[in-house]
Amino acid sequence: MNAQIERAVEHFRALLEEQEARARRLEADESASGGEHTGKTVIGVIGGDGIGPVIMAQARRVLEYLLADEIAAGTAELRAIDGLTIENRLSCGEAVPAGVLEEIRACDVLLKGPTTTPKGGNLESANVTLRRALDLYANVRPVRISAEGVDWTFFRENTEGEYTLGSRGIELPGLAMDFKVITDAGTRRIARAAFEYARKNGKKRVAIVTKANIMKKTDGKFSDVCHAVARDYPEMEVEDWYIDIMTANLVNPALRARFEVFILPNLYGDIITDEAAQLQGGVGTAGSANLGSRYAMFEAIHGSAPRLIEEGLGDYANPESILRAAQMLLNHIGRAGQAERLQKALEICCETERKCAVTGDQSGATCQAFGDYVLETLQGLEG
Ligand code: IPM
Ligand code: MG
């Protein structure tokens, strides 16, 4: 046993040294400027696994339509990136094969279909690997319930917390330990992103959500740093909430419409955004942005739905979430007009008119038919 403890201590020392160096790099990056901008925006389109290629085909059609002028003028390019499949990842033994990562790095922004993460084994999640490799620190997840005036935007820290060392915990006989990492600089940048968003979008209330009563060191730091950043935004009403009661608040119709912007460490953000999306209409209805200072990746918040594929229902997958992600992408690349048109079309197709609804099985429309409907609606909006 002693030898095992010694090995674990060595492992822990290496992790500490590595994370301390990362924290210092992050601090140095704080004063660096963002990425370079060229005249052309390259949008990498990654199908992913399971229902990914099905829903992505519709998102691609919509982007091709909305960006037709830019594509024709050569200022935007939709570039298919094929190798991020579970088959290829398993055969290379890499979460994101090196060649694929190189193709990805040659793009400016990405629209990514869901990728399968095998349970157990050694293959890490492609999502987590990409977020880390491209330093996509802000996971931004909007959720709306229009009938109630709910308009939430979650800023989930995307590279730290429980995810930094996710697969590198310690196991001794009868005992396992994982690690959670929070840094000042890593927290400052997510807090800054949330407060900037709030200011630019006329939001007044920001909730810092942690479990700092129990996770005293990490969540305590997260909360303190968020409050320090908040001092630069004196017009905001800043509140502290614990994740457990906030989870309850979101299902409390008497209270929930008062919340606007949320800042959370990684794992709480992961969990609560599924709950929030379900309240909006299901995880199939929510888009998500992963933002860094150089790259940005947009995706659905749901997974690859292998069950739908096994049951032969892949064609009935709902593309709404990836279309919402495409809308966020358009906004991000400065195409606010096109983003707004897509938002209007989705409002008509998913909320007000609903001429053709996807249910996930033969009782509803196919993904392709829904794509047709969105395109027709978009065309109708022009006139
Ligand atoms: C998400 C997903 C991912 C996460 C999985 C697929 C690794 O649940 O984007 O919310 O845990 O972040
Ligand atoms: Mg999740």
TrEMBL record:
This protein's record includes keyword Ligase: no
Cited Gene3D superfamilies: Isopropylmalate Dehydrogenase
Swiss-Prot/TrEMBL keywords: Coiled coil
Domain Isopropylmalate dehydrogenase-like, residue spans: 42-374
Coiled coil segments of this chain: 2-29
Keyword Coiled coil carried by entry: yes
Recorded GO MF terms: isocitrate dehydrogenase (NAD+) activity
InterPro entries: IsoPropMal-DH-like_dom
SUPFAM superfamilies given in the database record: Isocitrate/Isopropylmalate dehydrogenase-like
Any one GO biological process: tricarboxylic acid cycle
UniProt record similarity statement: Belongs to the isocitrate and isopropylmalate dehydrogenases family.
PANTHER family from the UniProt entry: DECARBOXYLATING DEHYDROGENASES-ISOCITRATE, ISOPROPYLMALATE, TARTRATE, ISOPROPYLMALATE DEHYDROGENASE-LIKE DOMAIN-CONTAINING PROTEIN
Descriptive protein name: Isocitrate/isopropylmalate dehydrogenase family protein
Source organism: Candidatus Pullichristensenella stercorigallinarum
